[in-house]
Each structure stands twice: as structure tokens, then as C-alpha cells.
Specification:
The protein is built from ten helices and 74 strands. By secondary structure, the protein is an alpha+beta fold.
Length: about 1000
């Protein structure tokens, strides 16, 4: 695989300039397979079976997948399954072929016969004699005749049956293909060709005489055939074997597909192959981590996405995206990259979580393992011709490029306790940004420039030299500049803010980014502050780049672009908001942005711009963003209201269908499909029901794709639905559905008219009666109201007092008088909601809530030795002790038996261990009084977990996951000897979804797989 990846990267450099001016490719020819954006679906998402044997996109825009358990119609979110139990005329469940003919009919071939889709169901098509047919492939002749390759030979559609006509081959066939006026059919060791109405057989000689011809394709002005003994092509009337030594010989090839971008894909047993022109350029083995193994079927949709059907892995969709990612397939030893820098020779130096590597000609070479560095994390880099400066989290060293070895001069020892954030040459020396201030290296000695206590503080993140020779320093307390031997405050720009990135723009203005997701643009005394309220995506700038009039901002949430000319227009009031637009997003919840890992650390070497391209370090290798490749999806989504629910039953709807509902049916639900496959999660949906509510409403949960109406009035209505794709392109016009609800008797005009006259008569009669009795009733009513008001006041006072006591009793544990689980379920959601809102405040950055489970050690021995009454006394005293040891605002829940759950209000993470130690020590030092005056000493064990487990993704896991982690921590400390605490946290490199999926595993397994970190005390 290595040489294929290298070939792609070299090819990219050659083709880059040319491709920049071409339309966007669905699957770019110069990208390796693992560079494509891939999403998969299997039985967990509703696919009826894991094996996908056939794929087509139907004329209505749905993707149809044939499986071994029926046909699945997919709209990007939901699978609708058709099998013999739902479509009785479908001959069999095992699907072997799908085909769309020129009349927009969808055909399916099974091991028992063929069927065609119409009226929302599949209808069987026989062979005219009622026999079962093993259907392998469909084709359509130039005359519009549908034919099939089957175990009974070549059959043609004649009226409502497939029959053998004339001298059509009658031996078993596996493939059939229409090429111009000719028709080709493949069997065992032979290819039949019909030309000018006559058939001729073309035997396959030698080792191919037993090969089965499985597929045909027209590509690169040639006809190609897939067989169980390799790939063939037709030349000068002869079928010749296509060979690539060591890569493509006698493979079993099961399917062929030519995409719109000039790629020929081969699904072979054990690998997926790609040909461009007549050269094999990529081979993806099934065992590769990024592979979709054993591909049996392929197709493209209207957006240019490539779909793959697999024998084992279900369904996959690939699209091009607009970034190149260099990671383990290119030989990177560790995917978590902290720094990147380019040298004059074009090599990309890479600092990872575990050492130093360099990317040359498409392949990584690891030079220094993390164990040989002062600290494993190579946090910043400065490449030079003879050496590379490497700053780590605790110290600095050189990599001697000539002698290929690590060097650490004695002068570097003063930085052994400092994290080196940046290194730049300035005024003939080297200046370093560290957590211990700014240092200058004159070639022999290190000199501290910004000592502790300076206005910049200890932590300097980034250094930057301006075009006029000035030196700027970004610190955790603002921006400084070097002036006459000392650092001074740089005006009030980003005052007291954590400066993370600096860039001088081409027009002389400066861009300054801060950790609290703000962007400053300006010069001299003319500065402007921007954030999400001004239209910028939420992101902490870690690296900047400028290209073609756009500012590129990269941070932990992704990458966004901002046209520089829009800044002044926004300041002048010409536009309402800055048009900042995300192009890469970590969470995948930003419409129009590609999902992917980005970007690590703040400081120097956190990204660079070269030839207009942006290179960045991420948790998934190096990201190479090519702005010219950013081509937003131009295809508006196709919409279908395809089902309706009446009387709690769903029924299918055909396009253009309308319906009437009886008078008693007033509750109705609609299901619809938005056929935009590139990124279904970014689809936005609006709807309205004309005749009921005419204004457009936004669907709150677009992935649900359902609308519900209850208690509708009678009348005629038109449901309209419109949607955007992942680039914000709206469907136009909206899709519409008409329906009518019959009126009840009392909703008719004649009934309402009669009722109006009756009401008027009754009003006239009642008015006269009421007028005579009004004064008498008023006097009696006033007395009654006064009496009842007093009684009601007294009753309400008693009721409020009783309700309060009842509510408190239901939420407390009767023995310990602590809160119980019911109180936790009632109170915790409100507390967490408040906590999430507070996280947006600067003073709350980094704060966490903590869940702790406390268990009394050897509590059973107390019951056994002293009796259960003594055990109850100890539990009550233990509850009172815990209340003394926690803070106001923390609350304690009787979790069960001798276990108690403590919910700590927000605190800094470094306070957790101190609080845990204080509680455990307090319990151990406390004497518990037993009946008779005896003092009992006890210990306890505590398991702790923070909430949220992932601070950068607060909603990735809920509080129950934190309680589960705390419970695992408690079990761990009890197994390790009790009388202590254990804190469990996710490892920085683990993905939330991965950890959530593995929470049912033991803590020992999670530690072994490095998914969590444990701290004990």
C-alpha cells in the first residue's frame, strides 16, 4: 500500500495547479482511498442484513440496496425494507441484482426470479412457465428491451414474462451488458456477443477456460470484463488479461464500476482496486482499518457520492471532502500531532504525542521516539538546514540532521521544568516562548527575558516577528511587545486575555486570537473585537493563515474562513454579520462543514500556510486544507412525502397522490424523505400546512423526518415541505401534498345557521329572565363569595403545609434523613442545565462537577458484631459526618445500603483530589459512638468521576456515564485495599463515542486499552 499512497501525494503536487480551476470532483482522482470522507450503515441503523449485493439510485432519488434479506430503500436516514413478507409477489429474499431501465422502473433479481417496483411494492415477473429463475444481472438493449443473465441463459422481457428468444444463449450466464448496438453475455469460460442480430461465442482459453465472467464495463474507450480469474479487456477482437505484477493477477473480481471522475473501481476478493486510464494506482486491502471490505456492488448518486456494498460491512458512502489527511496509512507512528513545520526542502516536520517524525515524498519517517526526548510530546518545532529545534512539554533539544542524533546542550537544562510553546530566530539569537516566560539563547547561554511576576505572567504561548522587525508575545494575560530591552503592554488589545495566535495580514493589520474564542483585527489605535455575536463560528484560534483575500482560523473546534474585505463592510454597517464559515468541524454539527479532527495546542508551529494551502496538527494526523478544493454541494435535495399515518397505521404514498379523510379522523402524521446524502445531519427542513397555518416552521429535529398534526379542523389542506442540503442550497419548489378532511354534521353551513337562530332565540328569552333576578342573585352571591373566600383561605394554608411535608418526606431517606434517588432524578437535570449555561462564562472555564460514591469499609462486620440497630446508628452518624465534610450547595444521596452518592457543585479540576483526601481523612479520624459508650473507628472508600468527562464536548456523555465511572473507581479502590479514593478520567486521546460504547467493560480492561486514566489517594 505504501507506494500507492506515495504515488498519490506526488501526483497531487503535479496536478494541484491544474485541478484548482476545474469543477469539484466527487472522488478526486489524485486522492488516496483513505482520504475520502466515509460513512457506513449496517443492521444497527436499519439495514436488513450486513451483505449488500447490489446498488442503484432510483429515478426518485432513493438509494436502493439489495441484501440477503430483501431490498432496502434508503433516504439517507431511514431504510424501508421490501421482502416477500411485505411484497408477496417478490420471488425471493436473496437479492442478486438491481437495475433502473430507461422507463425509470426499478428491477430486482433474486435467486427465484425477477420483480419490478410499482405502486409502492415489487411485483413478480415470471418466465412464462412458472419456473424459478436464478437472476444474476440486468441490461437494456439500444432498442429499450430489458434482458437478464440467468441460470436458464439470456432471457428477454416479453409482455409480462422473461423468455428465451431465437438463438439467444441458453447455457447458464452470470453477466450481461449492452454496449452500443452490441450485447455481451458472460458465463463459464466464454463470452457471447450479439452483433447485427447474430450471436458469436468468444471462448476464454488456457487458465481462463473455467473462469466465470461476473461483470462488464465500458471504460477508457475499452470494454472490460471481470472474471473469477482476473480482469480482461477487449482489444482487436480478442479478450486479453490485464496484469499488474504482484498486485493484480488471478484475483476473483466480483464487480466493476466507472465513476464520473475517470476512476475504474474493481471489487475483488480481499481488496478494492482503482484504475485510472490503464494504470492500476491503488489497492486497498480488506484488512486495512479504513477499508470497506469485500465490495460486491457500487453506484454513484446525483451528488457524486460513491456508494459501496460489502459482503461483511453493510453499506458505505464516500465523498471527496476538501482536506488531505496524512496519518497511519502514510506511516505516521502516532496520530496525535502537536506541531508541524516546513523546511526549505519541502519536508514537513511533525511533532507527535510520542516523538519526532518527518514527512518526505508522501511517507513519514520516525526519527526520535518519545522515550528519547525530555518529554514524549514534541510540542513545537523550528527546522533549520543542519538541525531541528524541538520543544517539549518539559524541556528542549536539537535533532542533528547531519549526524542523525539527539543533542541537548547544558544551556538547555534551565528549561527542563518548562513547556516550550514556541521558538523563533530574532535579532541574531533564538527566542523561546515557555511556561516560564520568554527566554533568549545567544548560542551559548539562556537568558530569561520575561521573569515571573512580569505583566505577561509565567505562561507565554506564542512569539511573532512583524514585518517592521518588532517582536510580539502572546501570553495568558494579554499581548506584549518588545521595546528597548523589556516587554510592554500592547495597547489594550486582548487585555488580560489568553492570546493563542498572531498573524500580520498582507495589508499590515494584525490578527490576534484568544482562547475565549475572540478575534481581534486592527493596527495602531484602531482595533476591533469580534466573536460569535458578530457572525464568527465558535472557535478558539490556535493558528492563522491568509490566502486569496481570506483569513483562515484553525482551532480545537475546526477551521473557519473569513473574507477579509467583509470586516470593514461589517464595521461600516453594510452587512448585518460577518460571513465566517466553518469548513472543518470536530463535532460534525455545523451545516456545510466537513467533519474531522482539528487542531491541537496554541503557540508556534501549530500550522503553516504554503502556496495557499494550510497544514495543521490534529488528533488524526496532519490535515492539509486546499482552499481551491472547497466546492460546496450544488445539488438541492430531492423531497418526497412518502408515507402517512392514519389510525396509528403507516401507509405508503406515491408521488402526486392526494387523499380524503373521514370526519372523525383529525390526527395525522406524515413521513418524508430528504434525499441529500453527502451529510444528512446538516439538512435543515421547513414545513407549513396551508389552510391551517400558512407560515413556514423549522423542524426542530431534522433527522426525525416526521410531522405530526392533532385535532385538525375539517377542510382542504396542502402540506408543503422544503429543505436545504449540507451547503444551504434550498429545494425549489417545495414538495406538496393535498388532502381533505370531511366535516362533521355540526361543522356544516346549514347546521351552523340553524344553531345561530336558536342561540339568538335563547338569548332573548334568557335576557328577560335574568334581568328580573339579577339584583336578588347579586346580593346572595356577594354574601356567599365572602364566606367561601374565608373558608378557602384557611383550607389553602393547611393544604400548603401538608403538601410541603409530603414532598419532603417522599424525597428523603427515612433512616439517614438524606436525599434519596427520587430527589436526585428531580433536582439533577435542573442543576446540570444551569451548569451548562454557566460554562460559557469566562470565570467558569475549566470547572467541573464531580460525582463521588462513598462506601463504608467492612460495614457488614458492624451488623454481625454489634447488631443491626448499631448499624443503623452508624449510618445515621455517618450521614451527619458527610454533611459536615462537604460544602454548602453539595448534596448527599443515600445510594443504597452503606453507599452514599455525593454531587459536588462546580470546582476547578485540581481541587478534586484535595476534597477527596479531606473527606476520607475526616472519616478515618472520626469516632462513631455505639450504645454503651463504646467508640468505633471506621474507614471508607471513595470513587470519583468528573462531569462532563470531556470538557470540549460537554454533551457527548451524560451524568449517568460519570456515575458509572465513579462506580468503577470505587470498585477499583476497594480491590486495592480500601481506605482511600480513586479518580477515573477519560484519556485525552479517546473519543467520547468509543468510551461510551465500552463502559460495560471492567476498569482493568479500560486501563489496559488506555481509554481511561486513574489517580489514587
Amino acid at each position: 500500500m505504501g507506494r500507492f499512497v506515495a504515488r498519490f501525494l506526488v501526483l497531487f503536487g503535479v496536478l494541484h495547479a491544474a485541478l484548482a480551476f476545474l469543477p469539484a470532483h466527487a472522488l478526486a482522482p489524485d486522492k488516496a482511498f483513505h482520504q475520502f470522507v466515509r460513512d457506513t450503515w449496517s443492521i444497527e441503523e436499519g439495514l436488513p442484513q450486513i451483505t449488500v449485493t447490489a446498488l442503484v439510485q432510483g429515478p426518485d432519488g432513493y438509494v436502493w440496496a439489495g441484501t440477503q434479506a430483501g431490498v432496502a430503500r434508503f433516504d439517507g436516514v431511514r431504510f424501508t425494507v421490501f421482502d416477500p413478507s411485505q411484497s408477496p409477489e417478490m420471488p425471493g429474499m436473496l437479492i442478486q441484482a438491481l437495475f433502473v431501465d430507461s422507463q425509470d422502473r426499478v428491477w430486482t433479481g433474486t435467486y427465484k426470479g425477477a420483480a419490478v417496483f410499482r405502486d409502492g411494492q415489487f411485483h413478480g415477473v415470471s418466465d412464462g412457465f412458472g419456473r424459478e429463475i436464478d437472476v444474476f444481472q440486468f441490461a437494456e438493449t439500444s432498442a429499450g428491451e430489458v434482458v437478464i443473465a440467468s441460470d436458464r441463459g439470456l432471457l428477454r422481457l416479453n409482455d409480462d414474462a422473461f423468455v428465451n428468444v431465437g438463438d439467444d444463449p441458453e447455457d447458464a450466464l452470470r453477466s450481461v451488458f449492452a454496449h452500443g448496438e452490441d450485447l455481451y453475455a458472460g458465463g463459464y469460460g466464454v463470452i457471447h456477443r450479439q452483433r447485427d442480430g447474430r450471436w458469436e461465442s468468444m471462448p476464454l482459453d488456457g487458465p481462463l477456460d473455467s473462469a466465470l465472467v461476473t461483470d462488464f464495463i465500458a471504460y477508457d474507450e475499452r470494454l472490460w470484463a471481470a472474471t473469477t480469474r482476473g480482469l480482461l479487456y477487449l482489444e482487436d477482437g480478442q479478450w486479453r488479461a490485464y496484469r499488474v505484477e504482484g498486485e493484480l493477477a488471478d484475483e476473483v473480481i466480483e464487480t466493476l464500476y466507472a465513476d464520473r471522475d475517470g476512476n475504474l473501481w474493481l471489487g475483488a476478493a480481499g481488496r478494492l482496486l482503482r484504475i485510472q486510464g490503464r494504470e492500476l494506482i491503488e489497492s486497498v486491502p480488506d484488512d486495512a482499518a479504513y477499508a470497506h471490505s469485500s465490495v460486491l456492488a457500487m453506484t454513484e448518486d446525483h451528488e457524486g457520492n460513491l456508494w459501496l456494498g460489502s459482503r461483511w460491512d453493510g453499506l458505505a458512502r464516500l465523498w471527496n471532502g476538501w482536506v488531505f489527511r496524512y496519518d497511519q496509512p502514510e506511516g505516521l507512528h502516532n496520530s496525535l500531532v502537536w506541531s508541524v513545520a516546513r523546511d526549505g526542502e519541502g519536508n514537513v516536520w511533525t511533532g507527535t504525542m510520542d516523538g519526532l517524525a518527518v514527512l518526505r515524498e508522501g511517507r513519514f519517517e520516525r526519527l526520535v521516539p518519545g522515550s528519547e526526548q525530555p518529554h514524549p510530546h514534541a510540542y513545537t518545532l523550528l527546522p533549520e538546514p543542519d538541525r531541528v529545534w524541538v520543544g517539549t512539554r518539559t524541556g528542549l533539544y536539537w535533532w542533528n540532521r547531519r549526524e542523525q542524533r539527539v543533542e541537548k546542550p547544558p544551556a538547555f537544562d534551565v528549561l527542563d521544568s518548562a513547556q516550550v510553546n514556541g521558538i523563533i530566530p530574532y535579532e541574531g539569537d533564538y527566542w523561546l516562548a515557555t511556561t516560564e516566560g520568554v527566554w533568549r539563547f545567544d548560542g551559548e547561554r539562556m537568558h530569561r527575558i520575561a521573569p515571573t511576576g512580569d505583566m505577561g505572567g509565567r505562561d507565554v504561548r506564542v512569539l511573532y516577528e512583524t514585518s517592521d522587525g518588532g517582536l510580539l508575545a502572546g501570553t495568558r494575560r494579554g499581548l506584549l511587545y518588545w521595546h528597548h530591552g523589556r516587554f510592554l503592554r500592547f495597547s489594550e488589545v486582548a487585555a488580560e486575555r489568553d492570546v493563542t495566535a498572531i498573524l500580520e495580514l498582507s495589508d499590515g493589520r494584525l490578527a490576534v486570537g484568544t482562547f475565549d474564542e475572540k478575534l481581534y483585527i486592527g493596527r495602531d489605535d484602531d482595533w476591533h473585537e469580534f466573536d460569535a455575536d458578530d457572525g464568527l463560528p465558535t472557535n478558539s484560534p490556535f493558528a492563522f493563515g491568509e490566502s486569496d483575500g481570506r483569513l483562515w482560523v484553525a482551532g480545537i473546534r475546526g477551521i473557519y474562513e473569513l473574507p477579509l474585505d467583509s470586516i470593514q463592510r461589517y464595521i461600516d454597517g453594510e452587512i448585518e454579520a460577518l460571513p465566517g464559515r466553518m469548513v472543518l468541524n470536530e463535532r460534525g454539527d455545523v451545516p456545510g462543514a466537513q467533519k474531522g479532527f482539528c487542531c491541537n495546542g496554541a503557540g508556534n508551529a501549530k500550522g503553516f500556510m504554503h502556496d495557499g494551502d494550510l497544514w495543521l496538527p490534529t488528533r488524526g494526523g496532519i490535515v492539509h486544507l486546499v482552499p481551491q478544493r472547497i466546492q460546496r454541494n450544488p445539488e438541492p435535495p430531492r423531497l418526497h412525502v412518502d408515507r402517512v399515518r392514519i389510525d396509528q397505521k403507516w401507509r405508503a404514498l406515491e408521488p402526486g397522490q392526494s387523499f380524503d379523510l373521514p370526519a372523525e379522523q383529525r390526527d395525522i402524521a406524515f413521513g418524508f424523505a430528504v434525499l441529500s446524502y453527502q451529510d444528512p445531519t446538516s439538512v435543515q427542513v421547513e414545513y407549513r400546512l396551508e389552510g391551517f397555518r400558512n407560515d413556514w416552521q423549522r423542524l426542530d429535529e431534522p433527522m426525525q423526518r416526521q410531522l405530526f398534526y392533532t385535532n385538525l379542523p375539517s377542510g382542504s389542506f396542502t402540506l408543503q415541505v422544503r429543505a436545504t442540503n449540507n451547503a444551504g442550497v434550498w429545494s425549489d419548489p417545495p414538495t406538496s401534498l393535498d388532502f381533505h378532511i370531511q366535516p362533521r354534521v355540526w361543522e356544516t353551513v346549514w347546521f351552523q345557521t340553524a344553531m345561530l337562530f336558536l342561540v339568538i332565540l335563547l338569548i332573548w328569552l334568557g335576557f328577560n329572565y335574568r334581568l328580573r333576578n339579577m339584583q336578588r342573585q347579586q346580593r346572595a352571591l356577594e354574601g356567599m363569595v365572602a364566606d367561601r373566600t374565608e373558608k378557602l383561605r384557611v383550607a389553602n394554608e393547611h393544604l400548603r403545609d401538608y403538601s410541603a411535608r409530603l414532598e419532603t418526606a417522599s424525597m428523603t431517606d427515612p433512616l439517614t434523613r438524606l436525599w434519596n434517588r427520587r430527589y436526585l432524578s428531580s433536582q439533577l437535570p435542573a442543576d446540570l442545565s444551569h451548569f451548562h449555561r454557566e460554562l460559557a462564562k469566562v470565570q467558569m472555564l475549566g470547572s467541573v462537577m464531580v460525582f463521588a460514591i462513598v462506601d463504608i469499609d467492612f460495614f457488614k462486620e458492624i451488623n454481625d458484631r454489634h447488631g443491626h440497630d448499631a448499624g443503623d446508628d452508624v449510618l445515621q452518624q455517618f450521614a451527619r459526618l458527610l454533611e459536615q465534610l462537604v460544602r454548602n450547595g453539595d448534596y448527599i444521596v443515600r445510594w443504597g445500603g452503606e453507599e452514599f452518592l455525593i454531587v459536588f457543585r462546580p470546582m476547578p479540576p485540581d481541587e478534586v483530589t484535595r476534597v477527596a483526601t479531606r473527606i476520607i481523612d475526616g472519616i478515618g479520624n472520626h469516632g462513631f459512638l455505639l450504645e454503651g459508650g463504646r467508640i468505633l473507628r471506621m474507614t471508607a472508600s471513595m470513587g470519583l468521576a468528573e462531569y462532563p468527562p470531556f470538557r470540549d464536548s460537554p454533551s457527548a456523555m451524560d451524568w449517568n456515564h460519570s456515575v458509572t465511572l465513579a462506580d468503577k473507581a470505587l470498585l477499583h479502590i476497594k480491590q486495592e485495599g480500601r481506605d482511600g479514593w480513586c479518580r477515573v478520567r477519560p484519556a485525552p486521546w479517546v473519543e467520547p463515542a468509543s468510551l461510551a460504547a465500552h463502559l460495560d467493560r471492567s476498569l482493568r480492561d479500560l486501563l489496559r486499552d488506555e481509554e481511561v486514566l486513574v489517580e489514587r489517594g
